[in-house]
Amino acid sequence: MPSLTIAHFSDIHLALPEGRPALGHLLSKRLLSYISWRRSRHRIHRRTVVDALLADVRAHAPDHVAVTGDLVNLSLPAEFAAARQWLETVGPPGRVTVVPGNHDALVPVPWADGLGRWQEWMQGDDAPPGPDAFPFVRVRGQVALVGVRSAVPTAPLLATGHIGQTQADRLSAILDDLGRRGLFRILLVHHPVHRAGESRRKALDDGERLTAVIARSGIELLLHGHGHVGRLDSLVGPAAPIASLGCSSASALPSHHGEAARWHLLTITRTDRGWEANVVVRRLDGTGTGFATVGRYRLDIPAPLNI
């Protein structure tokens, strides 16, 4: 069977639009994030780094791109519009899949003015778009990308995520069906499910709900962002441990806030025993203008149990 290659990156944090946001937009949780951006974050998250990362991704010509959230910073309507223009440069909706991050849901924003601007990149193959269209499923060859929304508006100083029982129930049924079809199931979610090293104010507050679904129904791989660090964790699965792979910010220069930008190139191949996922880790090099391979490893993944 032919392999499928997927580029995964996260936490783009595109620069704010020119000019100061309207005062009315800042009379909310946005104010704290705006102060943080002006004080330090604008020096860390650089558009030149994002452009270099995209050039590196294009040079490797993946079949598909997965982006696990935080395209923007303050959830301003102008940011959503600018991020849509940026997404168009990443690739057409059929070849790029997005799930939202906590900065994309910093405060409540009407769907049409906010996340709805990205809906073509954030909807299932056969499902209508909309704020309630999560989880969604996209099948590419023998790989199923399942997008879950963990991003919800929260109180000031919190960056927690939430799945909810309704979404968890839908996800369980979806994963069962995809497992019966023998597909390689990749779960895309912004917040990491594995809590090690994650503070309570940034964690998935109902992570146990999601881990229970994964442990029962199974997936083959989980991709996430949020922590601004590259990490490989292990989750409990119905037959064998499941790899959970996280990325540092796609726009980040190295700093005490997090690692330099990185992205992952995954090659998914069917084997006699199940699946093989070969991972290449690409990280911003010392020049700050290019990327270099800093790691390679292989994940051997058994075929799902019959459900």
What does this protein structure show overall?
This is 3',5'-cyclic AMP phosphodiesterase CpdA. There is one protein chain. With 307 residues, the protein is of the alpha/beta class. The chain has a single domain, classed as Purple Acid Phosphatase, chain A, domain 2 (4-Layer Sandwich). The protein is 24% helix and 24% strand. The relative contact order is 0.16. The model has no long low-confidence stretch (mean pLDDT 93).
The gross shape turns out to be globular
Q: What radius of gyration results from the CA coordinates?
A: 18 Å
Low-confidence stretches: none
CATH class category: Alpha Beta
Overall mean pLDDT: 93
Q: How would you write the strand order of the largest sheet?
A: 3-2-1-10-11-12
Q: In the residues, how many domains can be counted?
A: 1
N- to C-terminal separation? 23 Å
Percentage of residues in DSSP E strands: 15-25%
- Report the major sheet: 6 strands, mixed
CATH superfamily: Metallo-dependent phosphatases
CATH topology: Purple Acid Phosphatase, chain A, domain 2
Helix content: 10-25%
Helix-strand string:
EHHHEHEEEHEHEEEEEE
**Would you identify the CATH architecture?**
4-Layer Sandwich
Overall SS class: alpha/beta
Can you tag this structure with a few keywords?
single chain; 307 residues; alpha/beta; Purple Acid Phosphatase, chain A, domain 2; six-stranded mixed β-sheet; 6 helices; 24% helix; globular
